[in-house]
Design brief:
alpha+beta; globular; 22% helix
């Protein structure tokens, strides 16, 4: 079956105080794409008022949502699936990561196969913290399992060049990404994850290595121009990946500080 997956760091769930224009733009984008799976980072406020925003988004996009509360930061994670996909298990890790980790096991229709999808948002405060977080994610890359881990890794790839605007980034923002040599940008987190068996689908399918941050509306804020959001697949799933796209258009230029990423898979029944 064809499986379409969207991952998106929405920047405070698309809300700036009472202004929800970005959230409405994000809903329009999701409804245009109609993904089978939507993995959301920064679902801030989705645990308030009995989960009102979570349920509202479910209704707006026609998908079932699962929320992982980030107990220390409030930057929750969520995973949404569309019929006929069916959830068979959901786990939240709010202890070992700066924000949280959301893991959803999904049964594929007309099949005995299951796919595990993971929404992740690694710590923004330095590579040494992110390397510790990555250690908890390594075991999920079992080569014989259909597993996809997506989200904001706050990290550069070993396959990508040094960002052209790296030296122009303010030192207090550079410090979030600085390599151990205190010169270039750190790539060790993705190196560690790939060593565990995760396949970077952007590297596999996008020869241009299109950056995911910053968007047009958030230039010169806190990011160098780089890939920061990834879709990482287990060996068993990576071979079924068909397409990969960073969605850059007039809507996504200012709907968040990150661009969403879309991928499709052809998973045998």
């Amino acid at each position: 079956m064809k499986l379409t997956v969207l991952t998106y760091n929405t920047l405070f769930a698309g809300r700036d105080g009472s202004d929800d224009r970005r959230a409405r733009a994000q809903v329009g984008l999701i409804n245009d794409i109609q993904p089978d799976v939507f993995l959301m980072q920064e679902a801030k406020g989705f645990d308030a008022n009995g989960g009102a925003w979570l349920y509202a988004l479910e209704a707006q996009i026609g998908m079932r949502g699962f929320l992982a509360v980030a107990p220390r930061t409030g930057q929750n994670l969520a995973i949404f699936i569309r019929d006929p996909l069916r959830a068979v298990g959901f786990e939240v890790d709010g202890a070992h990561l700066h924000h949280a980790l959301a893991t959803l096991q999904v049964a594929l229709p007309d099949s005995d196969k299951q796919i595990t999808v993971i929404s992740v948002h690694l710590c923004p405060n330095g590579p040494e913290v992110r390397r510790r977080e990555a250690a908890y994610l390594a075991v999920q890359a079992a080569p014989d399992k259909l597993t996809l881990m997506t989200g904001d890794f706050n990290s550069a790839s070993p396959h990508d060049p040094e960002p052209e605007d790296w030296l122009a980034l303010a030192p207090h923002h550079q410090a979030r990404y600085l390599a151990d040599d205190l010169k270039g940008i750190d790539r060790s987190v993705l190196v560690q994850l790939e060593a565990a068996g995760w396949a970077d689908l952007g590297h596999q399918l996008d020869p241009l290595k299109v950056p995911t941050v910053p968007t047009v509306a958030y230039r010169d804020v806190e990011f160098a121009t780089m890939r920061c959001d990834y879709l990482l697949a287990s060996k068993a799933l990576a071979q079924h990946a068909q397409t990969y796209q960073v969605i850059r258009n007039a809507t996504t230029d200012d709907a968040s500080d990150h661009y969403p990423v879309l991928a499709t898979f052809e998973v045998p029944q």
